[in-house]
Every structure is written in structure tokens, then in C-alpha cells.
Amino acid sequence: ETSNAEKQALEAEMRELQKTSFTWQFCLANMNHFMNQYLWFFSALTVENTVTHRWSELTSIERHQLREALHALYSGYEIDVPALQREKVAQLVAMVGLRQFPDENPQYLDDLHQLLQAKFNLGLTLCRATGDVITRNHTDVPSERQKRFANAINQHIPQLLAKLTEHCAFFAQQLKYNQSIQQSDPTAAHLTADSIELKRTEQYTMELLQTLQQFFTWAPLTAMQDTLLYSIASLAQCVETYLDIAIAALSTLGELLYSHKVFPQRAAMVGAILPLLAQPNVWQADEMYQDKLTDLVRLLVERDWCQRFNDKEFPAAELLQHLHTFTFSAYGALAFADRLSCWRPIVRSGPEEDGLDVTRPRDVWQHGTGRELVNKELLRTIGNAVQVVGSYTLSRMLFHHDSKQLLESLDNEELDDNMETELQHYYNQCLDLIELIAQYHPVYITNIVFEIIGNTALPYQQVFEICKILNRLRTPSTPPELVDPGNFTRIRYQLRDFSSICQMLVRLCAPLRGRYQSIDASIDWVISDQLCLFLAITDEMPTDRFFCRAGPSLARDFVQITAQLLMCLQSLLQLGTGAQPSPHNAYIVQLFMHVARLLVPLERLEQSQWSLLAMAASNFLCHASSKRHLTHYLLECMEPLYSTKLLHLDVFSMKRLNKAICTCFVSPWIHPVNEDAAVCQKHEQLLAQYILIRAQDLLRLEPYDPDWCRLLTAGVQSEHEHQTTGIQNTQVGTMESIKTEIIYLTDLIENFSDYNGLVKERLVNAYRPIIEKVLGLYQAICAAGQTTGTAAFTRQLLDFSHSVISVLQVQLGESFLRVIVRVFVDRFESATATCHRLQSVSTLLGIFQLIVDHPRSYRELMPDIIEFSVFTVWPLFRDQNEAILDEKLRDEVCQALFKIFHSLLHERFELFRPSSNISGGDSSASQASQRRLEAILNSYGLVIMGSSDAQLINEVLQSMQAIQERWQLFQLPVFRTQFLSSFVTTLLRKLVAADGMLHSGAIMNLLYSMTRAGDDCKQDQLDAAIQSLLLAPDAANELNSVMKATDYPTFAQQLEIFIHDMHIQQKQ
Fold first, then answer.
1. Global pTM value
2. Which of its termini does the chain have fewer beta carbons within 10 Å around, N or C?
3. Closest by alpha carbon to 573, among 559, 557, 562, 586?
């Protein structure tokens, strides 16, 4: 057995063999004789390498020999040659054609036509290879040569397309004939073509459809014939006998629609696709076929419906009829939901419910000057179709109407990437369409929903009855009706239908509040019923008694409908401003009390079930806390909650409840209007007390206490070690408790970023002791020396500081900010350059970013921030410090660093602009400004040329362009004299580099701006830059000429050609 070392040596030897001048000739002459597949592929790669990398070294005779040998090899293949072999040689033939047709090899297309005539599959493969050559960008072929080849091919597309059309029509007729015979008499196989010929016809048809699909992506189609369109459509109907061909035909039609190409049959597309929808047994076809047909119809409706549905030739009524049948005969629930998206453009084109007012100007009804408006009959047809789709979709959402048991197969446990279950995803797709229909037919849709709600034979009312049965019991036993196995599935489906109906109400009714008196009355009736139901479910103490009586199998379902019920009430209840009476005001206080009950521990429920109730309850209270007139009631209900640390709740519920409580505390200052001073004082005290409770362990901590210093520097110790050292029994909380407090305090302050200054003043007063404590902790940790155990905690402290400055920057004041900046800078500079220190620097830079971006000047803070960023942090990366081994960490810090560089230059450029009037006292300041600017520009140049982070390079390029546009950076004397030449050189080298194409647009913009920096020394700088590239004289002259282009389009086009040619020279 050959070892890896031997294999590598052999491969190296073969690569060297490929570079000889004679190997390609030997390989090409013997490719037909090589039986070993590895040897054959080595030969093919040798020829390919010769064409792509050594073409310029070949003489005209050798090129002729290579072309003729390849053509002889390819045209000599039998029609059953292996596909991989055929495609590889066809690719080589096309690559040579790219370099020679039509000038040195005018026979290329004639040879292609002959192959289509004599060996059809070989001709098709060469067609596809030709298309691949045209659609790819070849770095080894000059741009002008590629355009020449593509233009020459395009001129002959009509003849080529006619040939393909002829074959497509023949195959469609042949397969249709065979299918009709097999359908009429399955035993009459002798009447069809023999099996070998039939299989070959199927193979050719599949390859032809693949070729056409590729053609539609790049070839001009103005000469396309009607026969081709209808032949493809005919093949798409052969689904019963030739499934793969039918699916390929649908994909081909889809590509034709998707391509945005101009072709004469564009208006006839609907006529070709409509019979596919009208197939009598399409609902029984393969699922993939139906999905492809759905995609095709969706594309047709999106592209054609709104523009053409009023045309006389457009079969709008037929399309609506067949689309309705196709939609509601879907093979599965998700397939049905997918087909609903086809109706969205149709809904938007229809009339509104309040009458067919066709005199109104409406884009979708009137397409242009002189066009006839939509006739009333067609609008009525569209409106009726849309209403029927809406009502049927509402029915299809209910298990009660799911006679085919399509919904039963949908999973309701596992979450997808969008945090939805399969069943919820289905509901959302249905509700998206129903919500859209309700915008045009609100009364019709809501009437159907209210009929579903009011019908005692349907699930909504039946769930009410089940809850009444559970409520009447005052014992922990489960009622017999729920224990009976025969009722279990039915009850579970009723509960799920109740949940989906609540979702309907949320999506449909809330937006219609106040628009229709009849709808408002119905919503009030629904709210009253739901309020009574929720209060009944949560009436007992503890609340989990009700769910326990439902039994372990149904408890989760009842928990889900209770959470859904609360979400529905949150959406439908008009809590208002308190100025107007509401029919539900009498229940509000009781409702708040019952909601708060769901936030105390419910020990007899599973944690996941209780968390679901807690999330719904905290969300509801958070929503209600924004209403000033309800603050008093909410605080009264939540009093048992805001006197504790809420550690029994899950993270989401705790954060939402924290926000609800604090919003109530600051409510007097959210909309301050004649607030009572005593009330304001009480709320301010409550806020301060609540924040202190949230931070009690943190505030008890003394950073310089020996025990805590040891704990902080040693990291998080085990619980056993805490106990043995006596720390666990002190009044000071554990490290984990303090970390948790900081997390919630950080989240809490972020909730108030958009509130007014009065609110933030109260918050800064409450937070100031915590901020000072955090600064002390940060100083203590840095003084003791960071370790692995404290790195994460240090990052938490910085994250907290970042959030505080983001929200309370103005309220903290410039003097306090100066203290914060000095603490961070001094401690960072005094620490050793370790990985642990660097893990926090990106957050630290983010804090400084907030200060730099703020509209206030903060001139006294800027020098420290600039010096820290430019001369402390950047050298760590410029000098490739060995401590920075983590590439992810390096990228993170670099992104933050150059973001602050950009903000400093873009927002505060006056700090870097040299003064024109320099006196003795200002000389040192001016020199410092210039020194900082030079350092940042040098860092930009180093990143552009040396960084492997494409995103960072792009951000630096965009930053330079933005600074130039705002401050005319390239016109500054310091840039013209010290940086122009080096930046032009750097940008050109980057453009020629392997990854240069990723940034070509941004680099060309910068080069154009730099070459326009008018100055008498500009040409000297450009000459120096071009000379430093060490180009050949002709190339240097060409580049010099490009740089003198008078407009950007010419400059970009010529520079792109120059760079492309440079790539070719590099490869040679």
C-alpha cells in the first residue's frame, strides 16, 4: 500500500510533469486509450492547465493542433460515453473556443450545430459548456476577448434556439403520444417505441430541459418561438408517466419567468401555465411536482397579476377558479399554507368591502393614461374569491374541521430556528393572509370569527364549558369527562383550537378597534367573556389548583390556553388614558391581582409550565405599566413582588417584571402634568429602595477587604471552599449572586434609553452608588492583577458601565465622565499586556465610542481617549504582540478600535486639523494633532494591505471615503505630501491582490478621489506611486493614462480592464 509521503511525492512529480512543453500533446493524443480513470483525469487536467496557464506560450501551430485534437476527441465519442467524461472534454472545447472564436476558429458554432444533428447529447453538453464559459469571469482571459466571444455567440442564438425548439417539440410529441397509449391501454407497450429508444428519448429530453434552463439565464430570447414555450408546458403535463421530466419542465418555465428576459411569449405565459393548474388529478401528483408548480404559480401571480389582470386576454376568472381548487386540495397542512402566499397580490388588487368605488385613483386598478378601469364584474369576482379563501382558511386552522387529519401531523413541541413550532408556523402563515384580507373585508372576516366564537358546537365555547366543570370542583380530583380516554384527543384539539382562535382575535380585532361600531361591540363582548374566564381560572389560591385538576396529561394544554388568553386580553383591552370610561374598568384591579398571582411560585406545576404563565403575566404587567392612570393599582398589586429580588422567576420574566415595576416608579416624570410633590417624592423613594434591593449584595461588597480581594483574584471558588473559609456565612452575597445582580441592573437601565431627561435624572440618582461601587471594583481587580477567574467578571463590570453611559451620559455630567475615563485608561495602562486584559478592551472602546459619538463636545475628554486608542491599544496589534493568540478576540478588538478611529475623524476632525496660525503656545498642540492624524492614517494603510479580515478592510475603505466627502481629507497638505503616494501604491497593490475584487468598488472610489486632489505636486506623487509598482513601461504608461480619466465611469472601466490584464500577466 502506498504511504501518504509516497503519494505526495508522486503528486509533486506529476505536477512538475504537467509543466513540460510536450506532456499535453502526449496526454491529448492518448486520452482515448487510457483505461485508468486517474490517468485520464490527470491527462484532462494537464490539457486544462495548458489552456488556462500556458496559452500565451503556445505557438499558433500548437494552438491549432490542440483545438483540432480536442474537437476530434469530443466529436469521436459515442453517444453513451460517461457523462462526467463528456462534460469535462466539452468544457475544454469551450475554453479553447473562448480564446479563438470567431477570429481564429470561425467553425466553432458550425461544429456545434453538426453535433446537435449527429450526436444530440454531445451537442447539448457543448451548449451548456458554452453557456458556462460566457457566464463566468475568467481571470486568465482579457475582458475584451470575453466580450468578443459572448457577442459573437449571441449573434447566432436565434439559429441555435430554433434547433433546440425543433428537438423540444419532437420530444414533447413523442412522449405525449407514449403517455396517451399507456394511459389508455397499459398492456399496449408494443405500440410505443422500443425500450432502449424510449430511455434515450427521456434522457435527451432531460438534458435538453437542463440546457434550456441554463440558456434562459444568459441568452437573448427575442427570437424565441411559441412552439418552444408550449412544448415545455406540454412536457410539464407528463407527470403521470414521466415525473422527472415534468418536474424539470416546471423548473425550466420557472427560470423563464424569473429571468426578467424580454421574449415575445411573455404575455402567453399564463396561457401555458393555466392548463397545468387545471389538470384534473394534479392533487394526486408527486409532492415535489406540486411544490414546483406552487413556486411557478406564485412567480406568475407576483409578476403578472397586478399588471395584467384587467387585460381582456388575461384569464383572470379561470386563474382564480383553478388556483382556489389547487390551494385547498393541498397534500398537507404546510403545503396548503405555502400556497396561500399566491393569493397575496390577488387580495391587494381586489375591492374594499365598503363598495366598488372604481372612480378612485388606485395604482393597481389604473395602469396608465388611456387604460380602461377595472370593470365591476371582475372586481366582484375577485372580491368573492378572496372572501371565500379567507373563510376557508379560517376553517382550515381548526382541528374541528380537519377531517383529513392534516393538522395532526404538525409538531407542537420542537422549536425551529425562528423559535416557532411547526403548528405555530402553520398558524402564522394562515393568519398573515387572513390579516391582509381583513384590511379589505374587515366586517366579513370578523363576522366569521365571531360566529366561530359564539357557536356552542365549536371549540371556543366548548372550552368555556370544560373550564366551568373544572371550576365547580373544589377537590383535587380530575373530573370523569377529562379522564375518559375517548375524550382526551377531542379535548386536546378543542384547547388548541381555542388557542388559535385567540390568535385570530389578536391579529384581526386590535387593528380594527374604533373603526366599526359593530366590531367594537363584538370585541367588548369577547373581552367580557375572556375576563370572566381568566378570573375564574386564577380564582383559587394557589393558582395551580385549577391546572392540577385537569390532570397531568392536559395540564400543559390548559397552561397554554391561559397564557394565550392573557396575551389576547393584553391586545384587546383598551387600557386607555383613564379619561374615558371603559365597560371593563370594574374588573381591572381584580385582573391585575390575579395576574400577579401567576408570578409567585406554583410548586405543583412543572417548571416549564409555570415559566410560560410567568412570561405571559410579566409581559401583561409590563404593557400595563405604560399607562399612567394605572400606576397606583399596579404598585398595589405588585407590592409583594418588588420587595424581593425575584430570583424564583426565569430570566425573561424577571427582566420584564423589573421594567414594569420601575416604569411605575418613574411614571410621574414620563408625562409630567401637575404631579403632586408628595407623590413624586414617594415614587422617588420607592425607586431608590427598589434599586438598592436589586444591588444589595453588590453594595455590601468592600473591594479592598482581604477576603474579597482573594475571592476576586482567585476567581469563583467551589461552594465547599466558600463554606470552609467562612465567606458563605457572611452577610456579603456570593460571587454568583453579585454577578446576577449586575446582569439585571445592566438590563434594567437599558430599558430606559428612550425616556426623557427627567426620568433619567431619577435613575442616575438611584444608580450613582452602584456606579461608584463598580468603579471601585474595577480598580481593585486591576490593581490585584487579572486572572482567568476575574476576566469574565471584569467584562461584566465594563458592560454595566457601557450601558450606564449609553443611557445616562448627559445626566452623569462631564466631570464624572472624566473620572470614569481616567480610571479605565490608568488601570488598563498599568496592567500587563495579557489576554485577560484584552478581553475587556473592546467593551472599553465601546464606552469611549459612546462619548465620542455624543453631540456634546467633551473636548477635555477627547485627548485621553485619542491617546489611549492610538498609542496604547493600536500598538498591541501593529506590533503583532504574542499575547494576542485568539484570532476571534483580535478581530473583535480591531473592529471596535477602527470604529472609534472612524468616529474620531468623521465626527471630531477639528481635533486633528493643523492650525494655520501657529504661535509658540499652540505649536506643541498642533504637532500633537498632526502626530495623531498620521498615526491613524498609517494604521489605515497597514490594515488595507496587511489584514486578512475582509470586513475590517471594507470598513476602513468606507471610512476613508466618508472622511474625504465630509472634510476633504485628500486635499490637506499633510495628506498630499506624506500619504498620497503611499496610499495610491497600497490601493493599487490591494486591487491586484487575490482578494482585491472583494473591495474593488471602494478602492476605485478612493483612487478616483485621490487622483482629483488638485495640486502641483499631485502628478509627482502619482508618478512615484506608479514607479514603486515596478511595472513594465507599457503597463506604467497605461496606468498613468487611466489615472488621468476625466470621469468616474471611464476611470472605473479602464482601471478594471487594466487590473484584469495584470492578473493574467501574474499567472503567466
1. 0.84
2. N
3. 586
